[in-house]
Amino acid sequence: MFGGALAFASQKFAVEVDPKALAIREALPGANCGGCGFAGCDQFAAAVVDGRAPVNGCPVGGKDCSAAIADVMGVVADQSARKVAHVICKGDSDHCQNKFKYDGIQDCKAAMLVGGDKTCTFGCLGYGTCERVCPFDAIHINEKGLAVVDEEKCTACGICMEACPKKVITYAPFGQEVIVDCNNKERGAHVKKNCSVACIACGICEKTCPHDAIHVKDLVASIDYSKCTSCMACTEKCPTKAISGDLTKKPAVVEA
Hints:
alpha+beta, 28% helix, two-stranded antiparallel ribbon, two-stranded antiparallel sheet, single chain
């Protein structure tokens, strides 16, 4: 009798699931990472069917997943360029000093309770909060105390960005050669004193760039990746080396 009652209840109060949501759920990788902005893959699938989420909203699945979901929904997926997380800081132990010895919990958020121990107030603290929350093993603290992203593993889920109390993690195009690796928005000589590779907002990069792709905004250089050709002119001329780029890969200049 009890089993019969349960069977009746399961039929009476069953919640109908849209077949499209089930098909989308099958196409998803099942990471349940929350990078799409929803609690899990089931919620994301339902949101796509309801029009509350885009078909390419899963950062883990990539282009193949987006194409499969678009096929279920009968639309065309926007296959935009892949993005990955990037730590916009070069202030490791060789370039940025500590203003005091921190002996507390080895966690960035805990260190921020006492103001952070780095002389640069905008720099990576290096206590691994991002490393511990990443579900894809894509970010690690190197031997010099700086967070570094493994682009091949990164899915741009955004979890490390949310966890970072200094907000030094942002998105950059996958394989981008030239990046401003500084987040310092202060003015004055103490900026370079606090970190020898900090952007000092001198504007040389602006004057050097032949493609109008880099400008100083809020006292720090910023690159428009849609214009950047990775010519590395800014990397070569930056006086503090705050702009990353492998100069051995600099394109050769062909004389007219």
